[in-house]
Amino acid sequence: MIYHYSCVVCEKEFDEFRTVEKRHDVFHCGVRANKHITTDVQVPDDLMYQFTKTFNGKEIRITSKQHYNRVLKENGLVSVTVPEVKSIKKNHFKAEQNTKKMEERIRSTVAKEGLTKHLDGAIGKCLK
């Protein structure tokens, strides 16, 4: 079957032919790609919010979008759209990269100049 995927790092969308068994084993930019569920059928809003969900160990029957949003709010949760999730993941990935770069700069500086030089300067400033 042909499945539709998107990369969580670069956000590229692409299609790949996969067997059912290997449909989740797709990687892009070194990270597992998101598999999108596609359908030609439009689900009416009134049916989309007819399900049972467990919140804090308690099963709750959701009957409408308003009911779903109310239950989310009561449980300290929010509904997030796919673009918002992509944005959060992208920003988290960038922050993680920046932290790694900072760690590398600190290690490099310490390796070249030694830690005592920097500590002596900091201690001297604190004693003034």
SSE order, as H and E? EEEEEHEEHHH
> What are the segments in which pLDDT stays under 50 over at least 5 consecutive residues?
none
Assign a percent range to the helix content: 40-55%
In one word, what is the shape? flat
List keywords for this structure.
128 residues; alpha+beta; two-stranded antiparallel sheet; 4 helices; flat
Explain what you see:
With 128 residues, the chain is of the alpha+beta class. The protein has a domain of 38 residues. It is built from four helices and seven strands; from the N terminus they run βββββαββααα. Strands 2-1-5 form a three-stranded antiparallel beta sheet, with no helix packed on it. A two-stranded antiparallel ribbon has the order 3-4. A two-stranded antiparallel ribbon has the order 6-7. Helix 3 packs across helix 4. The relative contact order is 0.09.
